[in-house]
Fold this protein.
Amino acid sequence: MRVESVEDTEKDMEGQDLALAFPPGEGYLDLRENPRSIEAIAAARQYLPLRNFLSTVNRADSAFITASAKAKCDSPAAAAPGQAYEFASQTRLIFAEPSFNFDRERYIGLSSSLKQLLERDPGNAAHAVLRISPCNFPDQKRRGFCLEIRLIAQGESARQAELRWGLGLARVLQALLFTARTLKLQIGG
């Protein structure tokens, strides 16, 4: 899998603050607190790999919490003429341990570990972008970070692109679980 790691700046070219907020606001579904609320997420109902990803990442014993998730398929006409179909998802994660969210080095370590694990797959049917972004935590009145995982898969048909995406998302989930185990060992949990 091709993997790119990116760190966002805190402001865009016009000086506007780019930081996200956690919790994101009205309409946010806390899947850790209420796992059944996954039924309210249309993309999770429609795409089983996303549903499995969200359910696993938000388990009570998970090292992570999702802040948002979405998935969609673009036809060649929507992308560019002559190109393959594309299926993509975007998920934003924070650490379940609140203090970790203010430690940039934790996110750099997480991104680096995920990149290393995902690049072990020699295929190029999927492309992942791991983006460390600023994130506001109003409940703690602090600014920290989050990790956005964008996964893009291409195929000669919409179905093939979706299947490749599903396999890629399963690899991302495996890498997250492996990294979480390593993290728990490091902190003695």
Notes: Residues 2-10+18-28+67-186 form one domain. The radius of gyration is 17 Å. The chain has one domain: 2-10+18-28+67-186.
